[in-house]
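Check out a protein:
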Amino acid sequence: MKIDNQLLSNLEKLSNLYVADEKREEIISQLSDILAYVENLSELDTSRLDSYFSTLSGGTPLRDDVPSSSKEISDSILKNAPKSEDNFFIVPAIIE
């Protein structure tokens, strides 16, 4: 996959982020390096590994899932949102 200005523009729109013109080439280069690294991973021979292979003995440690309903937490999160209404984030539609 080739990262170009058009793809970067699409990623900006989907992520609702803005990349300054002077940073575009640097970001394109960094994203290309990341993709090249991930493509190297596809060269690994994993045919002899079990699908449940893990480097952790006993599996992945999990924390207790305890819900929190503190109003202060949601208020502090929503105050940083560009747009919010009725305790929800307002985001641009990405499917037209």
Q: What stands out?
A: The radius of gyration is 21 Å. The first strand starts at residue 84 and ends at 85. Residues 39 and 54 are 21 Å apart (CA to CA).
